[in-house]
Amino acid sequence: MRDLKGYLLIMAAATFWGCSATAAKFLLNQDVDTILIVQTRVGFSALLLLLFYLLFKPHLLRVKQSDLWRFALLGVLGVAGSNFTYYFTIKGSTVATAIILQYTAPIFVMGYAAVSKEEEITSLKVVACVVSLLGCFLAVGGYHAGVLTLSPGTLISGIGSMVTFSFLIIYTRHILKLYSVWTVTFYAIAFASVFWLFVNPPWTIV
């Protein structure tokens, strides 16, 4: 049952991630600013989670003050960084290009796990990684001419999305050893929201 729940969560995450990319491309085509999209996304998420926690699960907000820098790093570099570079790549190219570039992250993560000796790299994992990347390529229609478009700017932002997304995966795993997934999710999003408030303050948005 636990394995089934895990698979269902993975499927749900993939579905929401794909929907968010499509919605982002629609907004970007309407000339909505990239920063405004990512800022609105994390801002409203942080407010909704904060309200829910205060009403029903206040204990999830309790963290050590000495650990706040960990959440700040995860929020700014991981959440804000991966979101912005991913959407920026979508804006300058196509959803297919952005997805393929960012989803090279599993290779980076697998390499890190091997170097740090956190996990044993098996032939089965290597095959699974290659097959998943090939699946992404086929799913977004990367074999069609013109679907994958790259300029120097989108290539840099695409690589940036891969690096920051890899960091998000790796660093989240470390913090989850200290706090629950709900606590980590909220504080990462909250710090990303605060970061964007400095970059794009409310009076500028208005």
Features:
206 residues, single chain, mainly alpha, 78% helix
β content, as a range? Answer: under 5%
What would the average pLDDT be, to the nearest integer?
86
Helix count?
Answer: 9
Q: How many β-strand runs? A: 0
Major sheet: none
**Topology as a string of helices (H) and strands (E):** HHHHHHHHH
- CA radius of gyration: 18 Å
Uncertain regions: pLDDT < 50 for 5+ in a row? none
Principal-axis shape equals globular
Termini Cα gap: 49 Å
> Helicity range of the residues?
over 70%
State the secondary-structure class. mainly alpha
Structure notes:
The protein is mostly helical. 78% of the residues lie in helices and 0% in strands. The chain is built from nine helices and no strands. Helix 2 packs antiparallel against helix 3 and helix 3 crosses helix 8. It is globular and about 50 Å long. The model has no long low-confidence stretch (mean pLDDT 86).
How are the SSEs placed, and which strands pair?
Elements: H1 2-29, H2 34-56, H3 68-92, H4 95-102, H5 105-116, H6 123-139, H7 152-175, H8 181-199, H9 202-205
Question: Nutshell version of this structure?
Answer:
This protein has 206 residues and is mainly alpha-helical. Helix content is 78%, strand content 0%. Helix 2 packs across helix 8, helix 3 packs antiparallel against helix 4 and helix 5 crosses helix 7.
